[in-house]
Design goal:
mainly beta; 1 helix; 5-stranded antiparallel sheet; about 100 residues
Length: about 100
């Protein structure tokens, strides 16, 4: 999703389509692993996403802010090519 002219925000996720694929999310536990964020969506929304890479694999991190709570979850870690497809689907509203 491209930035809009004059928009100071980052990329936003499109609304979910009726045939959206379901992403399995797991809670994140603290670790000392180095993570590289390769792409991300705007954090002005209550739910935002990051495309992450660590240990040779990629995954999507979802952060949800609601009622003063912050919940961070991650998708399954897998090969970059598979996660990149899932990331594109998420951005276009074809996965949640």
């Amino acid at each position: 999703m491209p930035w809009e002219e004059g928009d100071l925000h980052g990329r936003h996720v499109a609304a979910a389509s009726s045939a959206s694929a379901s992403i399995e999310w797991d809670l994140v536990w603290p670790c000392s692993e180095r993570v590289r964020v390769r792409d991300y969506t705007c954090d002005c929304q209550p739910v935002f996403y990051e495309l992450c890479q660590a240990g040779g694999q990629r995954y999507i991190r979802r952060t949800t802010r609601k009622g003063g709570r912050v919940v961070v979850e991650e998708s399954v870690r897998t090969a970059a090519s598979k996660t990149d497809i899932l990331w594109t689907m998420l951005l276009h509203g074809d996965a949640r």
